[in-house]
Amino acid sequence: xxxxxxxLAAVSLMFNAxxxxxxxxxxxxxxxxxxxxxxxxxxxxxxxxxxxxxWDAKVDFNTQTISGTATWTVEAAPxxxxxxxxxxxxxxxKVSADGKSVDYSLKDTVNGEPWMxxxxxxxxxxxxxxVSVQYTTxxxxxxxxxxxxxxxxxxxxxxxxxxxxxxxxxxxxxxxDGPGMRFTFEAQVQVPxxxxxxxxxxxxxxVSADGKxxxxxxxxxxxxxxxxxxxNLAFQAVGKETGxxxxxxxxxxxxxxxxxxxxxxxxxxxxxxxxQWGRYDVIVLxxxxxxxxxxxxxxxxxxxxxxxGDKSLVALVAHELAHSWSGNLVTNATxxxxxxxxxxxxxxxxxIMEAVYGKDYAEMLQVLEYESLVETVQEFGxxxxxxxxxxxxxxxDPDEGVSDIAYNKGAYxxxxxxxxxxxxxxxxxVNGYFTTNAFKVMTTEAFVEYLNExxxxxxxxxxxxVDIRAxxxxxxxxxxxxxxxxxxxxxxxxxxxxxxxxxxxxxxxxSGWTTHEWLRFIYQLPxxxxxxxxxxxxxxxxxxxxxxxxxxxxxxxLAVKRHYATAYADMETxxxxxxxxxxxxxxxxxxxxxxxxxxxxxxxxxxxPGYHYVAQNTLDELVGN
Length: 625
Ligand code: BES
Ligand code: ZN
Hints:
By secondary structure, this protein is α+β, with helices and mostly antiparallel strands. A hairpin with a 4-residue loop joins strand 17 (234-237) and strand 18. The chain starts with 12 loop residues before the first strand and ends with a helix.
């Protein structure tokens, strides 16, 4: 590994995550040395980096805190005088360097940017090998959600899970908390006896008698992929290298629902190269998990709302699995480059879905992505800088960058590139991209350079009419965005048309429809649909109270917009039992926008304690707290 100690080093961050023993000689010749400024981390890795973590921790459900010692192996520049870590809300008890206690300082948060937390400055010299930080998390650490036994399915044991992306790892671990800084780790974690602990690492499959667990992650990962889950959990294998963790009464149903995981893994490898992380398991968490899924290496964290009973929502697993390449292997350098993680992943997810479930299925997903993108662009405004693929999140919470732009505009941009050279050339390019850049970071600019060098220069005429800059640094959806037609949706649209023409719900031809057809149906209903007509739909299709959360969410949003009060009691139950932000935001937003803010506030007051910090943070702003 080459390290640049440029004059910029004092103010900038240098990233070269590629560790020499992980890379073949040919991969090393591709220089990935870059001087990058990550606006969301205080650390200065060009001066001193933590390359390996030894984490010793105790999880205490009584105080809802984790106490631990993080021992970092240090790699420092010759003139290094300090190493800087990101922290937020940590109580630091003691810091030592090579075993000797040192005077550290905790510099206060940037004014008005509470998400940044505090910089922990530890004095070192160039010869310092290790620094150790003894600390305790705060009871309201943003990454951690502590659930009481009643908030779990089996209601027997409490539960803890983490959510580190984007910059919440610093609330439970002093670390250099930017996606461009990778490290390996080992951990010893003490949890209450009888509970299982899991991390982004080699994981146990059985409960230990004394509640002690050991972990090891030999591939270097960035801090946002650090994770921990502790609960009453059981494991069930799905395939040779794949399996599911969930609460004991649920694990068989989860394994059944996710029975295609192993096939997905194999199809993914056929597309874009060998899976680099050993096992691939999924943990199905309690319903307060704020996301659909999180691509923690070796162990995807997932919402139980994907367990629909008919395998219709497993695209989420394809998505998180795809991150094992796009994101976890080739990582966005800063959160401004987030589309490189998510756009590639939505694209790759769809390729896996096509390979496992066929083209017509994948087309439905693409059309839904497009519709959602159009709506987001409308909401942001067609000229908004937040609709650029390359984001400007300096001085802002990086959570503001999470939108359909990175995901769906990103994926459509890649589909456009594919359409210009054909699938064979494109797949060879993507394969090379993942292999060449494995365990490295990628900026948008380096991606464009790579794209030019490895694809466009070989097919200049094919790209003559593609304005790459307009897609990446320009707003909205460019005119040459590929148009996708779904034949299955064309059939749905005919039924919507019949219904709009006055046909009774009971007369519609809906047999064989799966979740996505129902979603299309609900989305295509007229904005001014009457409550009588909604009642007719409910009588035939029982949308209100439906167990499928995607359909329920789409239906309740329409219900709120149309003041269809029949659905309100079930919607309230839904909002009080599910914590997935993607479902919550549209419903509360619709209530706020339709003079039903009192209902929004009343339900939110009741449901808020059960939501994770990231959902609370979004909704506090939307609904008020
Ligand atoms: N990495 C994201 C979740 C995330 C993004 C957490 C940004 C925090 C900040 C994950 O891979 C994701 O995209 N999840 C989606 C899945 C969906 C697109 C299939 C989700 O949670 O809905
Ligand atoms: Zn993702």
